[in-house]
Amino acid sequence: MKWYHSLKVKNLFFFIIISLFFIVAIIFALTTIREKRMLSKADNAVTLATSGVVLELMKEQQKNEQLVEDMADVASVYVSKEILKKLLHISTDNDVVSGGLWFEPNALKEKSAQRSYFFHKDEAGELQEVLDYDREIATTYREMEFYLLGRHLKEGETFWTKVYTDPVTKVRMVTVVAPIYREGRFIGVASLDLKLSLKQKKIFSELLASQERYFFLTDRTGNVIISSTQQTSGAPLSSRKALRELVAKEFAYFHRHLDKEMPLVKQLLSESSELTPDEAAQIAYEMQHISGHHDEPIQFRSILLEDDPLFHEPSVVASYYFPHTGWYMFISIPEHVILSDTIQVYDKIISVTVVFAIFAALLGYFLIRHSIVKPLESISRQVSQIDLDQEIEIKVKDKGEIGRLAESFNVGMRALHEAREKERRNEALLMQQSKMAAMGEMLDAVAHQWKQPLNALSMYAELIKINYEDGEVDAAYIEQFQKDIETQISHMTDTLATFRNFFRPTTELHSFDLRRVVDDVLLLAKDELTKNTIEVEVVEEGTLELYGSENEFKHLLLNVINNAKDAFNDNGVKSRKITIRIIADEKNPRLEVEDSAGGIPESVIDKIFQAHFTTKEQGKGTGIGLYMSSQIAQKHHADLSVENRENGACFTVTFSELSFHA
Q: pLDDT higher for 228 or 276?
């Protein structure tokens, strides 16, 4: 018995598992409570950490939106690049890097008016005008995102683009746009470009000061606008696969109500090949809320991460969605920062629980061992010493369930002893019946094989009388007649010996030529084949020399030929031919016996090698011939199979490498 099969080991494992289950249950309960407490405290911690940031972002948003609206209002009355330059100078912050006015073709009355007025700050912070912006880019500004979005706004509305790099100034920025209307007609777009990364030291100084949190701000497509770098070891946050998956998950949550079938979505997709269906749906959603004057608040939610991608420990991630700008802000605070005091209490509770569980497991183990395991071990030792031929009872001191088990075992042993005595008597009777059945099967088989030579002897008796009356009997005739009679008698003797060897394996094995076996069998069956007008053709494609019992293999071939003969007669076939092929193929050496008797019904072809299975009428077949043939093939390390071909059945004996060697 293996050590792990022992009841003592199983008992120990049982209590270990129970203890582990108890510990896991306590830990799970405490973890659940801790997660709820963590979320509660996390909301407070995130609110404290971000309230100032969110407020400053809103102020910056409103200030820049107001500026671009002023630019659009002035341009709707009078277009002047001097006034535009002064308006851009109003912003004293370094976040505004460029701005401009962009008009529809022929929108201005003045013939000499420019189509666009665009200024950007150089390295010294001075505004420089970019003349004819379209010459610097591959397309036109009217095909750029900021202009396409501005075209769909109503008067007095603003909209923010995603992060992009300006093709002329090469600055990575975001743009807030406002439409320009004159007398109710859209004539262009005012734009204000911001490089928000310059605001890090001002707005995000509180978040940047802490080494125990990280944050990043993205646009509506997930492009990072601003991010902390303390926890990234120099790698950008956008390169972290886990963070990208987190952003995608939060986007799906905030975008769960988007409608991709809105008319504006289809219009945006038709106007720009750069927009995705999701991005177009989000833009349409934001524009719809702007148009409806919805004062939608900033959306917020917090989630627990089991393994933060940067801290590599549990953390709380707070997500903010700014509907008007389409921006998202993510802030992560590790668990140990939020629950620094609570974690110590939980650790003490878990330690006490583990100690108690181990003590309870050991106590239960020794109790069960004394009351159950030891009595069962005593029963096991006594059972292992029982002689089934003797009536012996096992003894145990236990008076409870184990004692009743031992008594029931003793009752069963007495019944088993009586049953074994009865079984011995039945076995002797069955052995005698088995011998008689085997003898009957052998006689059936001998009768099946002797039928042909007995018919031949009967025919010879009729022929000698007729030939004698015709005067054809002479010394030579008598000599040939004697040889034919001896051949049939010899075949009957060999058949009897073959069947005896089948049930009692012979040791007389030797190498023999397969062609000689075929010739001998055809000689023995010559008269029967002639009588039934069956033509036999032998095709020899090489020489095969087998190792085994030559007489048994003759028996196999004779059975197959007799089966074909019976099929000719049963099916009433007139053109009767048997083709025997000896094929010495290196890869597939085989013997084929093909007839033209019409084939075997598909419903029974898989059963014809079963013992006592026959398709003939009762009394015409024993169903043992082909079964014995398959057994003989197996003894020669070969396989006997059958298939239907064009005109009849083909029996194939396929030889293996062992068929040719001792």
A: 276
